[in-house]
Design goal:
Helix content is about 35%, strand content about 15%. Strands 1-2-3 form a three-stranded parallel beta sheet, covered by helices on one side. Helix 3 links the parallel strand 2 and strand 3. Helix 2 runs parallel beside helix 3. The protein is elongated. The mean pLDDT is about 85.
Length: about 130
Amino acid sequence: MKKILLAVILLITFINCTQDKGITDWPEVTKEAKPWTRWWWMGSDVDSVNLTYNLEEMGRAGIGGVEITPIYGVKGRENHYIDYLTPKWMQMLAFTESEASRLGMAVDMNMGTGWPFGGPEITIEDAATKAI
């Protein structure tokens, strides 16, 4: 008798739980639950038209957010580079954040240039060339 009573109580509890929230309901998919991607800004050679285009395409592909990593540029595009953390660079970052928000996406920022051991000005003698 106790087993039957316990089975009835469990069945009633299960039915009550599934009535409020269907057993197949899935939680809302948020930008945090979607995949994110690293977004290399080569020489920070960016502009508002192409930032919007790329964010819209990534959003259509299901990307929930981007992690911007500014890094060295492409040879031949030097006159398009935007120097890291200059007012123009910060304007492009703010624009990117605004567009991402409009698209239901988020932006994160790598706190450096993507290369932890220097850049083109570092000589071979001073470069991180081996692991110990």
